[in-house]
Known about the structure:
- Two copies of one chain form a homodimer.
- Chain A is an all-alpha fold.
- Chain A folds into two domains: 67 residues, Arc Repressor Mutant, subunit A; 144 residues, Orthogonal Bundle (Tetracycline Repressor, domain 2).
- Chain A is built from nine helices and no strands.
- The first copy, chain A, is elongated, with a radius of gyration of 20 Å.
- The N terminus of chain A is likely disordered.
- Chains A and B meet through helix 7, helix 8 and helix 9 of A and helix 7, helix 8 and helix 9 of B.
- Chain A binds a DNA duplex through helix 3.
Amino acid sequence: xxxxxxxxxxxxxxxxxxxxxxxxxxxxxxxxxxxxxxxxxxxxxxxxxxxxxxxxxxxxxxxxxxxxxxxxxxxxxxxxxxxxxxxxxxxxxxxxxxxxxxxxxxxxxxxxxxxxxxxxxxxxxxxxxxxxxxxxxxxxxxxxxxxxxxxxxxxxxxxxxxxxxxxxxxxxxxxxxxxxxxxxxxxxxxxxxxxxxxxxxxxxxxxxxxxxxxxxxxxx
Amino acid sequence: xxxxxxxxxxxxxxxxxxxxxxxxxxxxxxxxxxxxxxxxxxxxxxxxxxxxxxxxxxxxxxxxxxxxxxxxxxxxxxxxxxxxxxxxxxxxxxxxxxxxxxxxxxxxxxxxxxxxxxxxxxxxxxxxxxxxxxxxxxxxxxxxxxxxxxxxxxxxxxxxxxxxxxxxxxxxxxxxxxxxxxxxxxxxxxxxxxxxxxxxxxxxxxxxxxxxxxxxxxxx
DNA sequence: GAGAGGGGGTTGACAGTGTCTACCTCGCCA
DNA sequence: TGGCGAGGTAGACACTGTCAACCCCCTCTC
Lengths: 220, 220
């Protein structure tokens, strides 16, 4: 991980010049970028408003001029996270038939999660960010729609009966979310053993797609 | 373990009698039970040591006489949670061939998680409880071993090639963990729509088991 | 029986947190 | 020129986890 930030939010430090870009890059953006730096560096537990303010080089109250409260900051991060995830899925699920696209999308999903563990963890933390927040709903729905489109392609391909599209969507999402979650946070001895994360990321989505396409899913 | 049920913990209030069971039910147990009550009622966010102490009717420092720090309390809860989950899995995966047992275990897994959302969330929170805690490792490994045994039965049945046992274990665990996680915390519009949680809990593990058993998993 | 020791409880204090409130300081516009 | 609001500041409050000091009472030893 090291210095490589998620959306490459490098901490802008203090801008020495007070040029026009200061207006185009107001503290709101600085706060969000600093939040990403902090959450990837110190984890969700270290993501306090005051730590973010310190990282952004402002007083502990400055963020409140741009966000109503802590949750609104986190909700914005979550929305941007889902957008980044959706972008990754869209970029991956472009070529081939439905099965191939599902495998590719699943791989991209887990890869994105593992590459941005701090952000990814934030996506599924309703205790921190209400699931009903409009921006979270929008961005999350966008990511889900990519998977939905891929599953729909499998229905079009005839490898999946239409009535199973939504349950299979849940199965697919569950699998990639579960794998990502276990790879990032898994308390059990998965790693270090015979299992290799890269192999799992490549393998599990492909096998999931193949398994879904196998007989049994078109009839019942 | 004794009189206090690990799940369905009702707050014992103040014992009016100072009988012998007071020695068998010391504050340590009361703190854990109060923690479960608090986490199921107020979520992980509300699970502070002081809130637990208040719920147990003691001073804010009393818990520290039985646990080194907050993490040790939470680690104990996590270990008990994994034990409860393992019990549920063991109780479910008893009858039928490997495929049937995998479906039953998967169903039991998700049912347990949905029945104990506060506890379940705690199981995958390494920011709160270190994954390397010995008791967490033991209990978590126990739960995983139940699934491992079931997958091994599928290998014995000949529906799964032995080399795939461990990846399929990950797939199965990912799926049930992902489904449980999404049902509990999913920020996206899964519920309220055409999807019914009970149906998913019954359906997804069964389809997962059937999908694994389908052709493609025995050869590669 | 006397007294030492300690297990298990208490209160007090500290730094850290989110957030409310009040204040200051600009640039802008009438 | 003067008002005003956007966007920054510091201070204060209640809350948190945890360290330290204290105190009560049971038990063991002499």
